[in-house]
Automatic annotation (TrEMBL):
InterPro entries found in the cross-reference section: FAD/NAD-bd_sf
Protein name: Uncharacterized protein
Ranges for region Disordered: 1-20, 57-89
Source species, domain of life: Bacteria
Length: 255
């Protein structure tokens, strides 16, 4: 609770709904409902948004009731039936974390299914309904220009059919999306980008995270299509860094 209390900005909303966010104990007499009634808190349920403040108060309040002295009374934690990993406690995460090299060796069809679904990025469940009826939404549009117009801004957009249109408004929120594309890496020369062999828009990599272009390596999210979802996260550095170091050292030795 200390980390949530000290490090989160005031009013920050949790991504999860109340049913999996509130930390109150589930023993008789110590449910979140009971705690909220005792302290006069409004009970959050259903599709209510959860601010960080009641989340912290619920956790600390329930902890104070259940273990007021800070000790668990000699209780033994139940055994874990699934292995612990940096990405969570599950057999699926264990396979992703421990077997990235094997992940690369399976067929593209098999590899891309978990790449798209396992630990994929997603927004909060409450984000989509928020602008409804309040602000117009323009999905699948690419912003190609913007300029000041009176007290607002004029935005020029292009869709997938390469048709352009302009919109004048007071405020714009641009959601960049999370689709990986070498074209978005504008510091790479265009002719170099066209030489990249790709799999599902991502560069195809060998065991040393090297692309089809000599001396060009890729880690992070673009490498996840080859080595698995682990590479989307900072903890994937432990997998990618040694392989990148060995590959570059070997190339330097050959040079």
């Amino acid at each position: 609770m200390v980390a949530w209390d000290r490090n989160m900005s005031e009013g920050k909303l949790l991504k999860s709904p109340p049913s999996v966010s509130m930390l109150g104990g589930r023993r008789r007499g110590f449910t979140p409902d009971v705690y909220c009634r005792q302290v006069g808190e409004s009970r959050l349920s259903g599709h209510d948004q959860v601010p960080v403040e009641p989340f912290v108060r619920d956790g600390r309040g329930s902890g104070g009731q259940l273990v007021s002295d800070g000790f668990g009374g000699g209780s033994t934690p139940p055994p874990h039936r699934q292995p612990d990993t940096p990405l969570g406690r599950s057999w699926g995460s264990y396979g992703v974390v421990r077997h990235g090299t094997a992940f690369r060796c399976v067929s593209q069809q098999v590899r891309l299914k978990p790449w798209r679904r396992v630990l994929a990025p997603f927004g909060s469940w409450w984000l989509t309904p928020c602008p409804g009826g309040v602000a117009p939404m323009s999905p699948r549009q690419h912003v190609i220009g913007a300029r000041a117009e009176g007290n607002g801004v004029e935005v020029t957009m292009r869709n997938g059919q390469r048709r352009t249109r302009s919109l004048c408004t007071g405020h714009v929120v641009v959601a960049t999306g999370r689709r990986v594309s070498p074209e978005a890496v504008d510091f790479l020369a265009p002719d170099l980008r066209t030489r990249l062999v790709r799999r599902a828009r991502c560069p195809h990599l060998d065991a040393g995270v090297r692309s089809s272009v000599p001396s060009l390596y890729s880690t992070g999210t673009p490498a996840a299509a080859t080595f698995g979802p682990l590479l989307r996260f900072t903890c994937g550095t432990g997998f990618a860094a040694p392989r990148l170091a060995v590959a570059t050292a070997q190339r330097e030795g050959q040079g």
